[in-house]
Amino acid sequence: MKPDFEQFKDIPGTTIFTIELAREGFWLNQFCMSLRTEENRKRFHADERNYLDEWKMTEPQKQAVLDRDFQKMLDLGGNVYFLSKIFAAEGKSYVQAVSTMTDMNVEQYQQMMIDGGRNIEGWRSKKERGEA
Amino acid sequence: MARITGGVTTSHVPAVGHAVDAGKTQEPYWKRMFDGYDFSKQWINDNLPDVVVLVYNDHASYFGMEIMPTFAMGIADKYGICDEGYGPRPIPDVEGAPELSTYLAASLILQDFDMTILNVLDVDHGLTVPMSLMFGTPDKWPVKVIPLPVNVVMNPQPSGERCLSLGKAIRKAIQAYPEDLKVQVWGTGGMSHQIQGARAGLINEPWDKKFMDDLVNDPENLQYKPHLEYMIEAGSEGVELIMWLIMRGAMGDKVDEVYRFYHVPASNTAVGHMIMTPKE
């Protein structure tokens, strides 16, 4: 059976963490895993650039981390569960971090969730939305 | 002989763990959700199993991308609590069921499920949040646990058919175990949620409710639902729901639905929770 990763690309505003993307993001995600100890969190926060240079990440991956550009990190092979170590280490919640990837601020996003979440209508297909 | 006495499904949102640990369960944002588990705490107290086979996924807390097992099973005496970036949750370690889990892992391999064997494992919110929801904040957990981590992080994930079949194989193995033990199987994760990208925050209540109906009444068809549908309709992380199929497979053909609860939101997620028992 031939894997079909193309089928995921029509889902709007969504990056599916495939085995291919996982390979591209390996070192970015490894860096994230290193933040599971307090010692490493301290070292990272003390000098982020220096700490990132210890990992075999690409320059765009490092820059995306420095910018806390989570969408960019996803595009470059990061996965949100790995990336959560970056924002968790800063005392931020999933809601706070995830909202930065949407067109809402955190208050608007939180209100949307309390009101029942994002309605799926209009969010099923890029083709339907005229994005592809 | 060992018996499967019940099945539980529940979401395992990390923020729920924070709310428990920080004593916020009675705050307005959380109260309605936690109230939804009052029945369950009483039920499990009245129907306490000896062992829970707890199907969950690790969230890059113990497994990185160095090793990514599709199906794994803990066979240790004890499981520590992961540091997920903010220090470990202040909860008791989880006691294993070494004899039963060793037997179960061996039986599953012989039934063609190539389990990765975990003699060492720390568990994350995927396992501990369901424990907190069902048992509250005891000094010691009242059951032994067999962790069964499933890869739902990296695509491809195991198919729905494979998950339902794994549940059936668990049932077969448990029913052939000579010791008189009561065993529950829990399937965790879901329901609809997406925690990434411009589409984050997606919730699809009608789809979730249909999934619950089908899980009870029509698992033989539900198993064929393609992952693409989970991703589109229930969000990129909604695919965790395949783990509920493992629980369902372990219940046998027919079940009695004991309890159902649905609530939006917990953090970014629709919380779904069910209790069912095998129909005798």
Task: Kindly describe this structure.
The complex is a heterodimer of chains A (132) and B (280). Chain A has 132 residues and is an all-alpha fold. Chain A has a domain at 14-92: Dioxygenase LigAB, LigA subunit (Protocatechuate 4,5-dioxygenase, Chain A), CATH 1.10.700. Helix content of chain A is 54%, strand content 0%. Chain A is built from ten helices and no strands. Chain A has helices at residues 19-24, 26-34, 38-46, 48-52, 59-66, 70-75, 80-88, 94-99, 106-114, 126-129. In chain A, α2 runs parallel beside α7. In chain B, α4 (98-110) packs across α6 (160-175) and α6 (160-175) runs parallel beside α10. Chain B starts with a strand and ends with a strand. Classes of the chains: A mainly alpha (132), B alpha/beta (280). Chains A and B meet through α2, α6, α7, α8 and α9 of A and α1 and α9 of B.
Strand count, sense and barrel status of the largest sheet of chain A are:
none
CATH topology of the domain at 14-92 in chain A: Protocatechuate 4,5-dioxygenase, Chain A
Could you name the CATH homologous superfamily of chain B?
Answer: LigB-like
- The strand count of chain B comes to 11
Interface with most residues: A-B, 59 and 46 residues
Proportion of residues in helical segments of chain A = 40-55%
- CATH classification class of chain B: Alpha Beta
Proportion of β residues of chain B? 15-25%
CATH H-level superfamily of the domain at 14-92 in chain A? Dioxygenase LigAB, LigA subunit
| Sequence of secondary-structure elements of chain A | HHHHHHHHHH
What gross morphology of chain B would you assign? globular
SSE pattern of chain B: EHHHEEEEHEEHEHEHHHHEE
CA-based gyration radius of chain B: 17 Å
Report low-confidence residues of chain A grouped into runs of 5 or more: none
Structural class of chain A: mainly alpha
Content-based structural category of chain B: alpha/beta
Low-confidence segments of chain B: none
CATH architecture descriptor name of the domain at 14-92 in chain A: Orthogonal Bundle
Determine the fraction of residues in helical runs of chain B and give it as a percent range. Answer: 25-40%
